[in-house]
Protein 1
Amino acid sequence: MRALIIEDDDLLRDTLGAILTSAGYACDLAADGIDGLYCATEYPIDLAVVDLGLPGKNGIELIEAVRTQGLDFPILILTARNDWQDKVKGLEAGADDYLTKPFNNEELLARLNALLRRSKGYASPVIKLGDIVLDSAAQTVSVNQQPLSVTAYEYRLLACLMLNAGKVMSKTVLTDHIYEEEADRDSNVIEVFIGRLRKKLADLDQPDCIETLRGQGYRFCVPLE
Amino acid sequence: MMLQIRLLLADSELQDNSRVELDQVREPRLTVPGGGLYAVIQASNGSFVWESPSIATLNTNSTQIKTITGNIPAASPGQQQFYQTDNGEFVTAFSIVFEKDNPAANNQSPVLSEIFTYLLIDSGEDYRQQLGTFRNTLVIGMGIGIAVFIALQLLLLKWLFEPLRSMVRELDEVQRGERSAFIEKYPRELSLLTSQLNHFIDNENRQRERYRNTLSDLAHSLKTPLAALRSALSLDNSQRKYVRSNMEQIERMEQIVAHQLRRTTQNATTGIGQRSEIVVLIRRVVDALQKVYREKQVELEMTMPETCFLPWPEDDCFELLGNLLDNAFKYCDRRVSLTLDPGQSQGFASIIIENDGHQIDEAQTQRILQRGVRLDESAEGQGIGLAIVGALLEQYQGKLTFSKPTNGGNRLELKIPLKLSIKQ
């Protein structure tokens, strides 16, 4: 999943990027509100972390602008000021949660996972579709309670497909959601990852649940109960 | 009365060298029985030679006349005498010499004459009646005059003191937060005072704003690098001992920043002449918290009036409500209730917040609410929020009581004055 981090402090921005990347997110970084708004509107963002005290365009104005354009991805605001007035204004502007600096990395990731799940309609961090269980908190995948070893990009791809289960996802969309903007992308990389996932699932006797729709993309088939 | 006597004299004529007769009595009151005016002509031997017709009803007979006239000392002819009797009658006496006719008289013969005294008696009733009327009129007139004078004085005082009353009224409104400055026009003597007060209020509010903004900016500039350091160290697992030591130092720095920020809240000045509509703010905070805690699906029950104003600036209201309600939501199981009583008649508003969570230690809560508790001695989470609440309530002369309902959960009750009083 693709995350946008808008934070003017260089060290914190880079650190947040590293934290979310290690948690399986493809991260885009912006240092001010103007760049942040551009990234939010131009890239297929799944969630955003926004600092309220931004230069150029402050966090609240940025959130209002994002919502005005009809973008509904979840937003978590970071604030160094303990002012409740700022927190309430940020939530009223369209943010979904807040975290006060300094924060625990674990708490940040837990809140982001919760926001992402809720936006996709999942109440629990654990997504179970058929025999496949994806734990977004632990970033693990298992099939029939057997762990499935996947690379970071394979995990991102599988998570993107399972969170959008039943929907057709084109290669372009999948690429945008698992890679940050600056990444060097191979045009066939999605096919390669899909192929690997299918092989690993087959090794665990899991029938192929990733459907290919020629000319359209891929779809994770929701198993019939 | 002398005029009346002269009229009698004019009409008098000596008859038979012994009696005086009058052709007419010109004064009507002398002819009317009981008219209140009586006249007699007294000879030198004391006998009455003429009485006015009005004497007929003067206590019926001439004896009283004799009593009245008998007390008048004799006077020389031509001398006018005026007396007032003990009964209040007025008596005027005038003696005159009448020359008698003497046919045998020659140039060497002495002139025969007799002294007659004209006595005019006024019963005084008219006089007394007029005097009474005059006195009544005087008293009434003076009474009315004094009343009008007093009324005018009161009006004048009311007009003179109206600017002071107006100033007191405006000051009361400033204390309630209903206005932020004195805006009415005052006389020159008071306008200097009100302009100085406005200047003071403005300065206080600006200073408060500057103070908070400066510290907020300081916090931002400190907390962001601290957050970056903390997060970066959390990622670095290469040297555990080194990381743990630095994390402890960072936590210590975070505590110092938070503690100093809380102290500044305690020492910040009160917003003067500002007020906030707290019902609207409660709804805004609750809506925000419902978003944050949506997974918990908190059941919220609120009992509030249509409007309720507190003499607090909006940012302090947000701090109070945000911290209290965040604690209530965070530590509840499923239910939170809020009751707001505007308390106009009691002079203070009451806010009661209850939740069904695990009952917290009352002693610890009271200790956190006490002024000057250091952050590193207080509990994390609920302690910090309550400490800020405690500091704000002290600043705005409010009170907070904590209790544990018998059916479980926690209950906080705040009493907040609707008007700020000047601290001694």
Protein 2
Amino acid sequence: MPNAKPWSSSPATESAAAFSRVETVGSPGTADPRLTADTLDLLVSGRNGKRIKSTAVRIGTETVIGTDDRSMISETDKLPWRMIAALRLHAKAPFEGEFIGTGWFIGPRTLLTAGHCVYSDTDFGGWVGSIDVIPGLNGTNQPFGSARAVRFSTLDDWRTRADPDFDIGCIHLDQPIGSDTGNFKIASFSDAELKDALLNVSGYPADRDSGERQYHHVNRVLHASARRIYYDIDTFGGQSGSPVWFQEKPDSEPVAVGIHAYGIGGTASNLNLTANSGPRLLPEVVATIQEWLQVK
Amino acid sequence: MARLACRLIVRDRQGRPLAGLRIAVEHASEATPDLAAVTGPDGRARLGLPPGGVGLALFLPDGTRRVAEIVVGDDPDRTYEVNLDV
């Protein structure tokens, strides 16, 4: 057998290793699993090379972009809306005050939200004191009751550096309310999977109905950076922590791919975008969240 | 993001504290999270804000919207008074 000749390979032209898909398991919960006709009308699915609405001049608010096209959700006891919870955040002494945010179930006892809803040096002096979780809040109606959480988790990159790319937090409950409401599946989408994806965002904005009703809006991914997703979907203060989700078809399982955290001021000027944004659920982030799901 | 811990106190035209108001940032020099603060019984709230001009949207319990501008200084834990014509 002759010896092979020395040989070389050209440098790899692909810039990164294949993107690994990491995901969790969703559940419709034990309550009525049917999707209503109104819900199917509101949700967007699939991908579209065109934006749903044209670019409009910002009308003066940080996060409502152009005309306010949000839709109020009245069926908050139905899927997928009931998996989304109004949050009432309470700071510990000596910090005072209450805040409005949004969270969503990823397991029977576990919700995701923005990191700044559970840890903030400037708003809470560190960890939040407690959070009242009200799934599917609809005015005075609490279709699944409420629970007070005192245990939270966040990424160290958020806690130590307040890096908005890592603005992800977790709420741990003692009661398994998520068994009734159901929970989102989460998945790390590659850049190719995010391209032209139509996204849904729903949460509890403070500018409508005292932050007690859920509002939903949709549009296409405008841009995906290494760690953030950008979209011109209308939101307002109070919707921090809202799920950013994708559905393959109208009646497909909702898959969360990001967490809403910032208004248009959070979009760097060099991107030349008017967009709201939130951190992507990347593979290593989903792997961390899988550990959070195991926290007792 | 260089936000500072800021205290707000919101009063009506008679100088009485306004409780239960929801406050969100309309515009600021830097990105701010999409949180909303709620004033307590004494009209006070705390919010992390970047230095410079900040536009606030305030929502009364009846849903009425008001706007206010404050200029956040460089020192933390300052109290900023917001007086609304209500």
Protein 3
Amino acid sequence: MPEQFQDFTHRGSVYDRPNRKWICGGACEGCPCLLGPSAKGKCQAGAKFDGRISGECLPVKHGDLWVCNRVDTHGGIPCNEGPLPDGSCCRAVAKCQPRPTLRRLRGQCVLLACLATLGFLLCLFSSESANNDGPPLALDAGPLSFSHAFLEKDCKSCHSAPELAPARLAGFNPHGFDQRAMSDGRLCMKCHTEIGENRGEFAFHPHTASPATLPKPSSLLIQRNPSLRLVGAAAIATGLDGDHISCTTCHVEHRGEMFDIKALSNEQCQICHQSRFGNFEKGHPEFDRMNYPHNRRTRIFFDHYSHYEKHFPEKQKTEPDAVPIGFDEARSHAESQSCTTCHSPSTDSGQMKVNAFEESCAKCHTKNVFSSEAFPVIAIPRVDIDAINAFVEFLGTKEKREEEQDAGAWFVDYQIQDGFPWPMLLFLDKETREKWDLLLKEGVDISDLSSASQDQLQTATDVVFGFKQLFVDVSEGSAEGKRGSAELARRLEANGYPAPAAMLNGFPQDAFLRFREKISPSKTAFLANSASEGKLSLLEEKLKAITDASDDEVKRQLARDLAVPYAWRELVREMKDYTEKKTYPIKKKPERAPRAKPPENPAGSTAPGEESFGEESFGDPAPATEESFGDPAPAGEESFGDDAGEESFGGGVDDDALAFGSGTDAPAEVEEPVDLQDPNATAWSENIGGWSEDQFMISYKSTGHSDPLMKAWIEALLGRIDDDAALSALRESLRFSQGVESRAAGNCLMCHSIDEKRDSTGKLTGAVVNWHSQATTPFKMPERALTHFNHSAHLLLADCRQCHVTETDENGRDRYKESFPSTESWNLGSRWFEKANPRLFHSNFRQLDKGSCSTCHNGSTADDSCLHCHQYHFPVSDAEAPIIDRLLNREQTP
Amino acid sequence: MNFFNKRRLRNSAVLAGVITLSLGGFAIARTALRPTAIHTGLVLIALLFGLSFLNGRKKLPFLPLWKASTWVQIHIYAGIFSVVLFFVHVGFRLPNGTLEIFLSILFAIVALSGFFGLFISRWLPPRVTSSGESLVYERIPAHRQQLRKEVEKLVVDAERESGSSAIGDFYLDVLAPYFQYDHGVAILLGDPRRFEHRITRRIDEFSRYLDAGELETIGEIRELIARKRNLDFQHAAQRILKLWLFIHIPFTYSLLLVAIVHGWIALSYAGAL
């Protein structure tokens, strides 16, 4: 018995062919046939070769004899029987069932696996997602983040080329990554309109901000930190070079609902930044290097020192309730703990906001606001009308002019004595303004034309008629078909003031009628013309309605409607002689009263109370037989204005008129005394404010803090610093250079600072008023826009003084005031805006110390990552609406 | 240190270096906000094709492209690197896309079967060698048949000489099943001689009743039992050394197919196609 199974001698071993796919079925019995199975796995036992049947061997022919050819492994040669005569083997081999080799089986498994895989892929591509309205399962790259989950079934919302095409396999484009990322990113912008300034124009720039806002990318990408230099180089080499940073650069989707797609490591933040940030405690730059948090002037001028050391101590003696809670006279400002009286944390922005005026300032400064002066908007400017008339007469065209323009002479008695109504210039037409500017440039004063040349007289004459045209257009209607405040608004808009409605809200339109009357030589002709053209003024229409009404009750109601809203202020001013009486008789007599003869009036003016609604009289002088305007006016005739320029309602009235007060024509029968409010005109004007007309000067007085019309005027004037008239109106009419304690009309600007406004080239284009203590547009401060700090969260752990340390050095304290315009700076004329740069600022608080933050924010006690305090995206102001709003709208849209 | 240890140390060092460089590059690219998934994916799919070429290389032995052993070494270490690269590619997290999950499962099967193959190809061959005569796997059934015939011949001869059926009865009761069947992969686990010892203990108990002639026969049968143990061990070891490829190779082709589709989709959506 052999000790080894195998004999590898050439006679004792068969030649194994493991690469064959089939093996003889007898092999497992130790007796494989010599031929083995065919390539197709069929048994070849008994197969014929050249007509001879094979067996244990296939005999070979030696000469004429067939010789056994059996190999040793199958019994050796020769067999006892020998080959058959025809050359066939005499020892037949039993048929078997060939078996596949392992190699074949493995190949079959590979084929099966491939087919199964292809089938599975086919199923994935042909099957849709669970609810049959999404992409095929094969394209299901995983759940989107929570914020984008609603887009899961809508690939086209985020992918600009969502269709798969096998043909694309032939067109590999290595540069297509960036192009596709950008095109996909633009789809993001459809929803994320809050990203990128100028409606997404800079959405793919660093920090999604304009290159003008941030330092240039080329300088950003210079790495000083050796450990990050390689990263920076990789970033540059692979295309992260400044103007095409797509959204997917940082935000990777399909990582599950809870995946934070906004996460960014500290190192990733620093690939573009020059300074090394090992961590906040050791690597972050000190705040003073970045002027954090204050690198701009406070929007509201408030000197903490003057208040704490001067005003509050004084106020505490007279009005203890007016000083901040916690104010202690014995403690300096630096030690005060009364911050939260005026400051409170904002829950949404995290800022420490200044409380509203009513909470913080009103207790002391209400009087400043309500006692401010009115500023003249419309008035009759002082004109050297004699010189102009002489000039016109000299030219011989006076009659022609009057005929054409129906403007008459200048009403010298009503022109203002002091100054000039600068805001009026804003209403002049373009040609008149140009001529006015020419006169101003040449130093010609239209109130004194004694030394003016002939050309200047001509220009001044045109300017005067320009003013007259203004009065005519507003009172009668302009060629554009507008009159009253609509005409004024049109003129403002034509002169480049985009929001005239806010500037003229509640404008007393009827006052223009009186202007028109005073400057016209012939009111009869004027009224005749107006009536024929159907262009009665509002007041005229109402008066005519009263006159034409047949029913007394209607007349009374019309008169009441007329008196109260349109002439109340004028009425109470005229009726101030009756203010002591508290009651006002109203006539109810239905019959027309006999017209009373007017009393003699030596002064030539209608006495108060003698004004009547009856036959109309406008202007002076006029024949007694005609309607007369002005004085002397017969009793029973309506008269508007007297020499004093004041209109009066009341006095003698006829039967269809309504009389206020007593007069010579006072009705005999007083039926219903109406208890009206005490019409104290002075108190009204000082306490209520609003539009008023006095001495033919239409002016406006602030109605209180945050008066919308005052704001509109100031914003409009500051928005047009290229207009000398606007600057003059600011300086001379609003007189905001008078100081906070003054009664100047523009004294709001002494607390509300003005910031310059420049275009992208740095050119000064205007100025804006800081009406609010906090920026409503944080993007105006690029570096601050990327930093956020939540005061609310910190107030729980620390008091204000821990971070905000006041400057104790007197020089440092006073520099705060110097950052704001002083009276002198306003008087610099057109150079006033030199102080409008909010960056030129010195706080009277010390620079914040980074150490006060890193005490906690050191990575162990509190988070010190970059994104904890900074955000990447630059906020923009022109976003359409919050995303959630638009999404909700879309949901509601069928 | 022998050749294999040196080679293993050298290759491991190279692998560690490549992995370090790759992870460093990945960290740099990721910090630089580059599309690392695209980069690692392209490298990974190239690596998978490279790994699968080992099979092709074996089918093309005439090509002068290094020795098969070199290819195997490359295959092993590149395979390990591909596993590292796979984790980097998926971001060290479980994928959640349908196709990606399927692809990951396939990769896991291929990788795990590869590691299993690496393990058994390092664990079994020394044991096979020390077990006894090394046999050609395809001949083992024939050897088993041959061995069974030999033991039956011994039993028949012994009965004829002794005129007793004791050995025959013992053969039918105890020895026949042992020679008829093998023990599968169980013989690879634990002491491979435990089945042999179980039989020899029965033989020892039975031998006390035999005469000298029969004892001589039983002695020869003991030798055959030992050879059967080697036969079974060889068969089990070689079978498992061959059968793991039934997992590794088919799933590799499935993996390649799905990886191609995944790459097509990914590159299409990324804009390269």
Protein 4
Amino acid sequence: MLPDDAAEAAGPSARIIADPRVRHFHDPEKRAGKAIAESLGSEDGLAWDIYLFYASGGQWSDGPPAPIDWMHQLPSSWADPARFHTGDELPVELGKAMKRLTGAQP
Amino acid sequence: MGTQRSPDESVDVISLGGSLQPLKDHFNANSNKPRFLALLSPT
């Protein structure tokens, strides 16, 4: 998404979240970003700095299923400004969404 | 949720160059669970 984004940068960044449940991908042609933006209703947008929550059961076929919740850090874009979160607010909102997704008790 | 690895530990990064299929396959292989997906810039 940014000029310095390259496969070489993905490895060190991936080490930041080193959980065995996590898979890291590098998307040089921005296919995932385009597919996600389209799934959220944008015809020509590109999704990045975006967080999506999917219920069990949904399958990715021609495109990803609709997320049950999502939020982003794109200050001016096609993305719903009501879903924009940054700074200290972002981890709080991510935590709330994760609890709703997993049914975990607060 | 896990810990950071040391700088010399390797982490697999799967390339989506040419196809989204590896991402689709991983997403669908875990369809019996809720899933979280983040699209982030590495820089």
